[in-house]
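Deliverable D5.2: sample structural annotation.
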Amino acid sequence: MSSPFIEAFFDEPTNTVSYLVGDPATRAAAVIDPVLDFDPASGETDARSVDTILDAARNAGWRIEMILETHAHADHLSGAPLIKLATGAWIGIGSHIRDVQRIFRPVFAMDTLATDGSDFDRLFDDGERFALGTLEVEVMHLPGHTPADVAYRIGDAVFVGDTLFMPDYGTARADFPGGDARTLYRSIRKLLTLPDDTRLFLCHDYKAPGRDKYRWETTVGDQRRHNVHMRDGIREDEFVAMREARDATLAVPRLLLPSIQVNIRAGRFPEAEANGVSYLKIPVRSKPARP
């Protein structure tokens, strides 16, 4: 099986890994899960992470034709619109983004949000295949973390999004609206039926205890034998009990509220108000005072 060119870009503030993936035969390239730098305290955005990817592609002669999102991220804002503006590339995501849009439209009272996925240029179904130069990209629908998660299989590499982390760290949380631990278990088992030497590229790393370096590449075989949550022998009910108990202890991601509002719109901010400024919403849920 062919091997694409792969260059990783790690954003430490959000622990996110973006990828430039290219076909050496044609120099056609894709960017997977790009990050828009965002400061929630000031509301300011910065294009430095996007510029780093664009400069790398330009200097090496890669032609960026597509931007592939593995899901609507809850921990960083997408830089897809900036890459599209700079290159003319189209933006794609799994077709179940419609479910995520329907879930979050009432949460943020986003009355003008389309829930048909039309903010994106391409919507992918499970098993769909399309070309990246002479390489074939296969879409794998892997719900559980969210209803819309997909992985992209390109040659001998699979870009798995948030479904799996490094074997010493485990698996994605499944407590966001529309997430489900049992569904996540079955999606991971589907992923782990691929050949043992299949390379897996992750969207995040948080350095498991005892590890001093960030890592984001592993293999199906390593995951099957060593993943602390999903290694061979761990049953579905055991995983679900562990995942649900663990998720109950996790904090809300720092950028969840701005990220969801922007990312379900393919990285676009809401239309500017009369003063020329775009605004994001913060749902306020007040707990009653103790008597």
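Annotation notes: The CA atoms of residues 142 and 227 lie 17 Å apart. Helices lie at 48-60, 80-87, 97-107, 181-191, 220-226, 236-247, 256-263.
The annotation will be released with the project's public dataset once the embargo ends.
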